[in-house]
Write a structure and sequence with these properties.
mainly alpha, 14 helices, disordered N terminus
């Protein structure tokens, strides 16, 4: 066979020359392209992180500045002579934050522990106990998430007034013990637990209560800790319910105390920032303690759910 394309009539081999089969050079190798994408994502995350942390740093810095340094331009991130006067005013003034801290910690802690346990019980029932109409009941329960909480203020007000718990901390604690989102999140996590564990417990003669307490809860610590931390932050930052159901200043929570402090010190920007720092500090501590469980719980719920 004569290969006319390559111009050599004596050449009978049909293989193309080496230059013709050499792969075209790529603009960028796969490894280098992935490295560039990784650096790009990291850079975007750094920019977004700086954008979000900027007000927080300014708040803490301003709480230690003098009044003249608040509106200095360009912004002075570090006060020339840090002062504690504004923090002392928040903690030792006529409306000391100690009392409001105690109220908020009491309400948030009881709600976080109680809501997590009750949500775990409901989630276990919806995921591991077979009964007629289970999915329909769970769907109806989830549909309550579509109801705006503001709609329930009047019925709650009338109910709490008749029960005699209006203007008490029970008006905030009792509704906070039930969390629809918590039931949904834990149900997704419990659904990923193999049925073999439940069946082995039943073979050994354990009931649902024993299986729930001894088998399910111990393996669900990340999800439970995640819900507890989230629930604690929700109730710590709850402003609307405290505003509606609390009247006496001695029963105020931290959000109401901050509002009261701002109304009494309208031009004391340093004092406002000191009060805001005091209000945020417990949440930072809780998050730093529970961040490992939060990330693990979110990841497990997202992957297994």
């Amino acid at each position: 066979m004569i290969n006319r394309e390559w111009g050599d009539p004596s050449m009978t081999d049909t293989k193309p020359p080496i230059a013709a089969i050499r792969p075209r050079p790529r603009f960028m190798s796969r490894y280098r392209r992935k490295a560039m994408q990784k650096w790009g994502v990291t850079l975007v995350m750094i920019v977004l992180g700086c954008y979000m942390i900027y007000p927080f740093i300014w708040m803490i810095s301003t709480s230690f500045k003098t009044p003249l340094e608040v509106f200095a331009y360009p912004v002075e991130w570090l006060p020339q002579k840090p002062i504690l006067e504004h923090h002392l005013k928040v903690w030792t003034g006529s409306n000391s934050f100690w009392r409001y801290y105690f109220n908020s910690i009491k309400i948030s802690l009881i709600d976080a522990i109680g809501a997590t346990f009750l949500a775990a019980m409901a989630a276990y029932g919806f995921s591991k106990i077979e009964f007629k109409g289970r999915n329909v009941l769970f769907f109806l329960y989830l549909s309550m998430m579509m109801v705006p909480p503001q709609v329930l203020f009047v019925p709650r007000f009338l109910m709490f007034d008749r029960l005699g718990i209006y203007n008490t901390h029970w008006a905030l604690i009792l509704p906070g013990l039930f969390t629809i989102f918590g039931v949904f999140m834990l149900r997704q996590f419990f659904a990923s637990i193999p049925k073999d564990i439940i069946e082995s417990g039943m073979i050994d003669g354990a009931g649902h209560a024993s299986i729930f307490l001894r088998l399910v809860l111990p393996v669900s610590k990340p999800a439970l800790a995640t819900l507890a931390v989230l629930d604690f932050s929700w109730h710590w930052n709850d402003y609307e319910n405290a505003l509606v159901f609390l009247i006496d200043k001695s029963k105020y929570t931290v959000p109401l105390a901050m509002q009261n402090f701002i109304l009494e010190n309208t031009i004391d920007y340093n004092g406002m920032m000191a009060a805001a720092t005091a209000g945020v500090l417990p949440m930072l501590i809780v998050f730093l303690i529970g961040q490992k469980f939060i990330i693990r719980g979110m990841m497990s719920s997202a992957v297994k759910g």
